[in-house]
Design goal:
By secondary structure, this protein is an all-beta fold. About 0% of the residues lie in helices and about 50% in strands. It has no helices and eleven strands. Strands 2, 4, 5, 6, 9, 10 and 11 form a seven-stranded mixed sheet that branches. Strands 1-3-8-7 form a four-stranded antiparallel sheet, with no helix packed on it. The radius of gyration is 13 Å and the shape is globular.
């Protein structure tokens, strides 16, 4: 049974940091792992993804602030988020799939990130 378990969301002040984790299980192979986010009334957008071999891609709004990494042995992906602003407030979803063309793949249940003073 495929499962993605996310953790690390919460409330943080503007300028603060959070680290999200997503552990995958039940997969035969994972070619792409990533994070997407969805704010109320908006579409779900790419935050960052990491492809087998280590290539990373980021959404324009998070470049230079967020870093995605992966522990292949643990099938876990991390998202280090720094310099958070209120615009980063959203539900963050982990995504995993066999390849870039294998859309949409699988989704985690989502974790809320709220940036507020």
């Amino acid at each position: 049974q495929v499962q993605l378990v996310e953790s690390g969301g919460g409330l943080v002040q503007p300028g603060g940091s959070l680290r999200l984790s997503c552990a995958a299980s039940g997969f035969f192979s994972i070619g792409v792992m990533g994070w997407y986010r969805q704010a109320p009334g908006k579409q779900r957008d790419l935050v960052a993804r990491i492809i087998s071999g280590g290539t990373t891609q980021y959404g324009d709004s998070v470049k230079g602030r967020f870093t995605i990494s992966r522990d292949g042995a643990k099938n876990t992906v991390y998202l280090q988020m720094n310099s958070l602003t209120s615009e980063d407030t959203a539900v963050y979803y982990c995504n995993a799939r066999r390849s870039l063309s294998d859309w949409p793949g699988y989704w985690g249940q989502g974790t809320q990130v709220t940036v507020s003073s």
